[in-house]
Design goal:
Distance between the termini: 84 Å
Shape: elongated
Helix content: 40-55%
Structural class: mainly alpha
Strand content: under 5%
Oligomer: single chain
Number of strands: 0
Order of helices and strands: HHHHHHH
Radius of gyration: 26 Å
């Protein structure tokens, strides 16, 4: 019987640890204090040592819901490309990111009740707009954090060379510093069910209009 399973293209297939360890785009030896300008300047051990950050990078870019992106060769390539965008290891003044406060001008649109726009539609639009900016704000912080930690590691690798295996100080690990994106739309069904239950309870008591009439 013919194999009817769907085979993904190589660029979309899950990248295994074994495949990473067969990476040939690496350097065998690099002297101490040698500038690192691109991924192939890493030793194999250095390149693999970024796997913890790579996993966080995937988790920060869900395809849908809570599902992280599949780790692929293409995603790993773009991961390393971000580190070296207008940067190399000679730029050792790496700054850790700060989370910008929510700005009402950025996170809220002035909703006008135009003809045909219901109150429900206006509320929906406001929630969508808020969630859009909140997702962008959290994504930027998480991305900047991962890039900053990676660049700090690269500066250290460049200084040390490849004579000894790379070591990652605890302060250059994530340590739970990435943010979880809390969107209004994620919990809206729960809020809806609570309001609906309260509504049904009040309706059963019959204490509101038009029953509560004083003569």
């Amino acid at each position: 019987m013919a194999d009817q399973s769907v085979r993904l293209p190589v660029s979309h297939s899950h990248l295994s640890q074994a495949q990473m360890c067969r990476d040939e785009e690496v350097t065998a030896n690099r002297s101490a204090s040698t500038t690192i300008t691109e991924p192939k300047d890493f030793s194999l051990m250095e390149k693999v040592s970024f796997n913890d950050l790579l996993q966080e990078w995937c988790a920060a870019r869900p395809n849908s819901g809570d599902n992280s992106q599949v780790l692929t060769a293409k995603l790993r390539e773009s991961f390393f490309e971000r580190f070296f965008y207008l940067w190399d290891s000679t730029d050792d003044m790496v700054v850790m990111p700060t989370l910008h406060e929510k700005n009402i001008r950025e996170t809220a649109e002035f909703v006008r009740f135009k003809d045909g726009i219901t109150k429900a539609k206006a509320i929906e639009s406001a929630i969508v707009n808020w969630d859009k900016y909140e997702r962008a704000r959290v994504d930027k912080f998480n991305s900047d954090l991962i890039i900053a930690l990676a660049r700090m590691r690269i500066v250290q690798f460049a200084q040390d060379g490849t004579e000894s295996p790379p070591t990652i100080p605890q302060e250059l690990r994530i340590n739970g510093r990435t943010l979880k994106c809390q969107l209004i739309s994620d919990d809206f069904e729960e809020h809806y069910n609570i309001v609906k239950a309260v509504h049904n309870g009040l309706k059963a008591r019959k204490i509101g209009r038009p029953h509560h009439i004083i003569i």
